[in-house]
Request: fold
Amino acid sequence: MKYVVSAPVADFTGKIGSVMVVDGKAEVDTSKHIAEYGYFRSAGYQLDLLGESDDTTTEAASSEDEPPKPYAGKPEWVAWAVKQGADPDAAKAASKPELIDQYGPK
Reply:
C-alpha cells in the first residue's frame, strides 16, 4: 500500500530511513519501506492512503496546469517536463532533482 506522509513540521526536508521528505511531505510504499511506515505511525505523522478515494483523482485533475508536488514520483515529473516542452528522452535521462529545478514552481 502507498501512503502520502505529512510530517508534524510542515517545512521539514530530509531523509527518514530511506524515505525522502520534502516540505513536510513524502510518499511511502509499505512493500518497500515498512520500517519507515512503522516509524511514521508511531511518531504522529499523518498517513493518507493513496488511490483509495476519489479525492486523489479530483486533486490530480484540478492541478493539471500545476507542476507535481515535490514528493511525486519521477514519472510524474518527466510527464510534466514533456508537457512543458522538454524532449522526452532528455526528460527521462534527467534526475528528479534536475526536473524539479528546471520545471518546478518558481
